[in-house]
């Protein structure tokens, strides 16, 4: 602690006003470093006679409060009197995050329902938020920083509260006051949703996979008629009256539903729509209007037809569901860690219709899942959404951490690469990718300076992307991995900020002047 205090006194920070301190925050790279100590100037905030900041000592990051008199603000930690000042060293814990939320409300996640462009910044490590913020704050967009699914939590051994806690402290570290979201991603049950809400996650991505009936899409006419006739009479009459053989004007074109297509929609989606309405009512009872509900129908085996999208949103609206964003499954292949697989012109033609449906029915955001690294279709997405979108990313940030390892500690990268190949068959049970890793260059034939090339090859990107669970729980990897990233934090931030900025540029988002 003494090193922190001496540096603060040397720079006269205890005597500066917040306005003077803010001058130090103009350059996020303007670190204060000395003798194994790293202080983050953007985290410097005054409250009365107390100065707060985040600093790292010997690769361990903590929150510090330095004051001229004792302070009672809810923070817990080790206290000492150094150089005539009262000093608190507080761990980055859930309890201290709660206190931080009260002291500095901008560190609390909030609903971004009214914001036009939101960017999901999945962070499997709890380390990437600073770089995400450095990229996102260059554009007119809002970050959803704490974005995790149950699957990711199970693989990383984290929970929703830890995810929000990690993001909260990094928001403070970067002095980001623009507002940020937190997303309980791909949740399927109200019990799981409640866990996310308890952790202060205002965004819920409702994955309807468990209550969809996609098999109806392949029914024969005879089977379709038989199953449709099993629905309640009032449902059958409603579908025939309002959808069967109807033509809807959407944008500059039309969408029609034949009698059989209307029947398929009823069979495929009715139960899911009823559940979505139940979830929306539950969210409203818990958070009033301060929540963002995303409807996810992307985890299916076939693309979402525009007619089906139209049916879904019209029925959600009829049930009074507040849809913030909706994620169809798009034509082509949105695999993890690689660019779009498909014909861009074909994607554009159908994507435009999805956007027209959204604009005509509440102007909600179109959400793009597995959205990282889809550089070839970003211009199309930006063009037709006009920036009214939610982009979900996750694994691409993990890969930039591995790129950092490849540059900073090549031997560790080699270990990780070998282990990833071992974990790959098991990881394939949880992720849909088509990489053939037998085609990869031989690791032993690759010099240290070329290891980063594995982060450019689709097959190795996908292998490394989906094996994070095994790697993060591997005793030979875990401690060395986190220690290396702490020691080379600015390199990690630099690489990730550059990569994330490329995403937002390709989308054509407007820059902050």
Description:
This protein has 513 residues and is of the alpha/beta class. The protein has 19 helices and 17 strands. It has an eight-stranded parallel beta barrel, surrounded by eight helices. Strands 1, 2, 3, 4, 5, 6 and 7 form a seven-stranded antiparallel sheet that branches. The chain has a two-stranded antiparallel sheet with strand order 12-13. Strand 10, helix 7 (190-198) and strand 11 (203-207) form a beta-alpha-beta unit. It is globular. The chain starts with a helix and ends in a 7-residue tail after the last helix.
In short:
With 513 residues, this protein is an alpha/beta fold. 43% of the residues lie in helices and 17% in strands.
Please give a handful of descriptors for the protein shown:
513 residues; 43% helix; 17% strand
Number of strands: 17
- Low-confidence parts: none
Helix content: 40-55%
Distance between the termini: 39 Å
Largest sheet: 8 strands, parallel, barrel
**Treating each run of at least 4 consecutive H or I residues as one helix, how many helices?**
19
Binned strand content: 15-25%
Radius of gyration based on Cα positions: 25 Å
The overall average pLDDT, rounded, is 96
- The assembly state of the depicted protein chains is single chain
The general outline is globular
Strand order of the largest sheet: 8-9-10-11-14-15-16-17
Question: What structural category arises from helix and sheet content?
Answer: alpha/beta
């Amino acid at each position: 602690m003494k090193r922190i205090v001496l540096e603060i006194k040397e720079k006269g920070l205890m005597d500066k006003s917040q306005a003077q301190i803010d001058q130090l925050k103009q350059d996020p790279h303007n670190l204060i470093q000395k003798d194994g100590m790293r202080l983050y100037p953007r985290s410097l905030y005054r409250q009365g006679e107390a100065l707060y900041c985040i600093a790292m000592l010997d690769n361990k990051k903590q929150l510090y409060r330095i004051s001229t008199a004792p302070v009672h603000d809810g923070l817990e930690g080790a206290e000492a009197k150094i150089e005539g000042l009262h000093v608190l060293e507080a761990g980055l814990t859930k309890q201290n995050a709660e206190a931080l939320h009260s002291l500095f409300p901008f560190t609390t996640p909030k609903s971004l329902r009214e914001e036009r462009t939101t960017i999901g910044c999945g962070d499997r490590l709890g380390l990437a938020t600073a770089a995400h913020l450095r990229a996102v704050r260059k554009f007119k967009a809002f970050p959803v920083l704490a974005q995790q699914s149950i699957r990711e939590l199970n693989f990383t051994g984290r929970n929703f509260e830890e995810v929000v806690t990690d993001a909260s402290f990094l928001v403070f570290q970067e002095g980001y006051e623009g507002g940020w979201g937190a997303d309980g991603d791909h949740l399927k049950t109200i019990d799981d949703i409640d866990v996310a809400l308890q952790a202060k996650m205002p965004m819920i991505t409702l994955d309807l996979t468990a209550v969809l009936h996609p098999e109806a899409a392949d029914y024969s006419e005879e089977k379709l008629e038989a199953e449709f006739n099993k629905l309640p009479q009032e449902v059958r009459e409603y579908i025939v009256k309002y959808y069967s053989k109807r033509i809807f004007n959407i944008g500059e074109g039309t969408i029609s539903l034949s009698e059989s297509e209307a029947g398929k929609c009823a069979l495929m989606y009715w139960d899911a729509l009823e559940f979505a309405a139940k979830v929306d009512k539950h969210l409203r009872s818990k958070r009033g209007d301060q929540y963002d509900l995303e409807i996810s129908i992307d985890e299916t085996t076939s693309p979402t037809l525009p007619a089906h999208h139209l049916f879904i949103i019209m029925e959600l609206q009829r049930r009074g569901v507040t849809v913030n964003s909706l994620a169809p499954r798009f034509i082509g292949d949105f695999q993890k860690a690689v660019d779009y697989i498909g014909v861009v012109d074909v994607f554009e033609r159908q994507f435009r219709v999805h956007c027209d449906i959204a604009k005509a029915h509440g102007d909600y955001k179109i959400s793009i899942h597995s959205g990282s690294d889809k550089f070839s279709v970003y211009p199309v997405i930006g063009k037709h959404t006009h920036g009214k979108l939610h982009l979900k990313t996750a694994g691409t940030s993990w890969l930039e951490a591995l790129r950092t390892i490849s540059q900073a500690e090549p031997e560790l990268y080699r270990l990780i690469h070998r282990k990833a190949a071992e974990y790959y068959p098991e990881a394939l049970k949880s992720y849909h990718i088509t990489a053939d890793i037998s085609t990869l260059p031989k690791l032993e034939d690759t010099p240290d300076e070329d290891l980063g090339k594995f982060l450019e090859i689709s097959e190795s990107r996908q292998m490394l992307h989906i094996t994070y669970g095994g790697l993060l729980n591997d005793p030979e990897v875990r401690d060395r991995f986190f220690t290396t990233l702490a020691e080379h934090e600015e390199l990690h931030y630099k690489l990730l900020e550059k990569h994330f900025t490329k995403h937002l540029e390709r989308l054509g988002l407007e820059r902050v002047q």
